[in-house]
TrEMBL record:
<feature type="modified residue" description="N6-lipoyllysine">
    <location>
        <position position="63"/>
    </location>
</feature>
<dbReference type="InterPro" id="IPR003016">
    <property type="entry name" value="2-oxoA_DH_lipoyl-BS"/>
</dbReference>
<dbReference type="InterPro" id="IPR000089">
    <property type="entry name" value="Biotin_lipoyl"/>
</dbReference>
<dbReference type="InterPro" id="IPR017453">
    <property type="entry name" value="GCV_H_sub"/>
</dbReference>
<feature type="domain" description="Lipoyl-binding">
    <location>
        <begin position="22"/>
        <end position="104"/>
    </location>
</feature>
<comment type="subunit">
    <text>The glycine cleavage system is composed of four proteins: P, T, L and H.</text>
</comment>
<comment type="function">
    <text>The glycine cleavage system catalyzes the degradation of glycine. The H protein shuttles the methylamine group of glycine from the P protein to the T protein.</text>
</comment>
<dbReference type="Pfam" id="PF01597">
    <property type="entry name" value="GCV_H"/>
</dbReference>
<dbReference type="InterPro" id="IPR011053">
    <property type="entry name" value="Single_hybrid_motif"/>
</dbReference>
<keyword id="KW-0450">Lipoyl</keyword>
<comment type="similarity">
    <text>Belongs to the GcvH family.</text>
</comment>
<protein>
    <recommendedName>
        <fullName>Glycine cleavage system H protein</fullName>
    </recommendedName>
</protein>
<dbReference type="InterPro" id="IPR033753">
    <property type="entry name" value="GCV_H/Fam206"/>
</dbReference>
<dbReference type="InterPro" id="IPR002930">
    <property type="entry name" value="GCV_H"/>
</dbReference>
Amino acid sequence: MNFPENLKYTKDHEWIRLEGDVAFIGITDFAQSELGEIVFVDVTTVGDELEAEETFGSIEAVKTVSDLFLPVAGEVLEANETLEDTPELVNSDPYGEGWIVKVKVANPADVDALLSAADYKALIGK
């Protein structure tokens, strides 16, 4: 399993990559492998200001649906429209083309409080 060192992680299995005050957010390699084949990604919060740990959407696999939680407070700027036609990108490229939302982060320093790759690996026992 892949856990890039340049990302931060949450206990709910989301990752975040900060570029200035804009963050790309998706689910981890571990999460996609646990869910199985992703068939649908639903984000209905574009334009909304959300608090950390609020639900920003859901992800549907063949046998289950899981909520997606925002790692830090901010405004949801954009959902990855590519996932509408090819949700399986979350499986094949979870840290690249499989990103789920872009968020304007309210306080970029909040990202520092999230889990490092090593801390996340310890959390999931890898």
